[in-house]
Amino acid sequence: MEEQGKPNVTEDATEAFAQELLNEFPSASVEVRENKLGRKRVWIRVDRKEYKALMRHLRALDPEAHYSIGIEQDMGDHLGFTSHLLLTWRGEALSVLVEVRAPKDDPRIDDISEIFPIALQFEREGMEMVGIDFEGAPDKRRLFLPEDFPEGIYPLRLDDKGVSEDMVKNAGHPYYLKGGSKR
Amino acid sequence: MTEKVEYWVKIPFGPIHPGLEEPEKFILTLDGERIINVDVKLGYNLRGIQWIGLRRNYVQIMYLAERMCGICSFSHNHTYTRAVEEAAGIEVPERAEYIRVIVGELERIHSHLLNLGVLAHDIGYDTVLHLTWLAREKVMDTLEAVSGNRVNYSMVTIGGVRRDIDEKRKRIILDAMKYYREVLPQMEDFFLQDPTIEARFRDVAVISRRVAVEQGAVGPTGRGSGLKDDARWSERLGVYPDLGIKPVMPQDVTGERPHGDVFDRAAVRIGEIKQSIELIEHALDQMPDGKIKVFAKDNILVAKLRNLVDGEGIGRYEAPRGELVHYVRGKKGSDKPLRWKPREPTFPNLFAVAKGVIGDQLADFVVAVASIDPCLSCTDRVAVMEDRGRKRVLTERDLIKASIKKTREINPDIRGDPTPVGLGCSR
Asked: What span, in angstroms and rounded, lies between the C-alpha atoms of B24 and A152?
């Protein structure tokens, strides 16, 4: 859809931001993608060694940057953690996504809670749900899962560390209705 | 010389919440009546929706997302749909965008009225509760007339909306807006002028601007603390820029600088109801004719999405409680997403208010929590202190056993096999 009265500055700001970030972090992959509404997002993929430095840099660009979501996921042989940030840069609200990956046999990613305090809660979720190890996180307790949930099982893993079929029973219904509606 | 002895007491607050019918647990550390520290425990209503989502196709998740929450069911459905549309590159017809605005704003009116009522109830001002909830009935009836349901409207589908708004429905909505224009001044009067409300809401649970930034507070909570952000505005979402959206700040309603307290959050909600009424009227006025969805039937949609979705998509929308984000990642050739993650606005707001209440009185805690309009869902375990002082923890299984025993006592002839099976739904 055509948006009326959209200033041209908007397009430049996102592209310029991506270019400047690329100059600062040449090893990161920075891509600008536009959706059908004309909203541009900057998708950044960064090596885990540079992850913390990049986040610190983004925070310095906008001290009031809004950390909206941390998405932990199983990507096959890697575990990924994507953060969405809303940065106000040159008067423009930019939607920035930062992805970092760690191999499954060494799932260590730097903790960024000293830069964005709320990120800690998403990291706690990432630790229990897919088993990423956030190095240096000040609080490593479980957030959503109960304390008696078995160790070493990560519910959102897609491999054999996920929830196995024998753990899934009757959708938690306390009364086992034999046969159910099939009978 | 005697030293002053301080007694710090830890008390659990919840999971059966006295203010709201939603389970969440706070461990409060108290010094007398003063709150020293708050620890948040979540997961009492963890239903494994993300796990279920990995086993459903894109269209089925639409309905699953809607059932995450009854109050903001449209928001979840809408935001998820936006994420899939971004990942699949689907363009939505303009008429559908307008209908999305109308239903979204109707939902905002009903959600804000609900929260204002709950706030009044939590300070024991039940007259106001009944007045606001009486006013809320009108919008619920309107939603029923438009969508067929009072909650879980199922209005949105990927690539458009499922139902059109015809002349008859348009008239019903306009009637409702006329009603709210009459009722709202009265509501403004008792929320912004009443001394009882001001005494209990002013300077209670102050979330400073710094805490709001650090904890990522969103929606009325963030705006109440002076953060100028509204996802509809900063995202330039759909036709919202054409309708002249701008964030409602406390100073627009109260005329004072933002305090970041309960009063400001309530004031922002009042201002947003007003804004929603205007948005709906404008949207009904400007709505063009045309198609309401891209794909005529759901089976076509499922088949198309299998090839269209390739990559990642983010949906951002301002739900009544704040910025809602959904993330979807899919692969070509599969009708299921590889990852779907929603982030509801209560999540950061809860941690923000947990910081905000430190130093406040225990009695203000209920209204402080209600002021962010928490929308959680939660049942885990109960700690029971036995006579001898030994602590015993009852799990879900023990509780089920106890309840079966009790049921047998009451009615020995009960039928059915009451054997509890498995771990259940990871509670």
From this structure: 26
Q: Do A36 and B89 touch (CB under 8 A)?
A: yes
CB contact under 8 A, A169 and B329: no
Contact yes or no for B54 and A168 at CB 8 A: no
Sheet holding A78-89, edge to edge: A29-34, A40-46, A92-103, A78-89, A66-74
What are the mean pLDDT values of chain B's consecutive 10-residue runs (427 residues total)? 70 71 79 84 78 84 85 88 91 92 92 90 88 91 89 88 91 93 90 87 88 89 89 87 89 88 90 93 92 89 89 90 90 88 87 86 80 53 42 64 76 66 44
Number of Cβ pairs closer than 8 Å across A and B? 145
Helices B262-286 and B167-192: crossing angle, nearest 10°?
160
Q: Do residues B300 and B403 both lie within one domain?
A: no
Residue numbers in B near A139 (CB within 8 A): none
Number of domains in chain B: 2
Q: Please report whether residue B192 resides in a domain.
A: yes
Task: Note whether residue B26 is domain-resident.
Answer: no
CATH annotation of A9-182 = 3.30.460.80
Compute the nearest-CA separation of A126 from chain B (Å). Answer: 12
**Within a domain: residue B25?**
no
Q: CB A121 to CB B427 under 8 A?
A: no
Whether residues B244 and B346 fall in one domain: yes
List alpha helices for B148-261, DSSP H.
167-192, 195-201, 209-214, 219-224, 231-234, 250-254
Give me the interface pTM, i.e. the ipTM: 0.85
Please tell me the distance from the alpha carbon of residue B343 to that of residue B58, in angstroms, as a whole number: 18
Distances (CA, A) of A172 to B61, B309, B396: 20, 32, 11
Q: Are residues B102 and B72 in the same domain?
A: yes
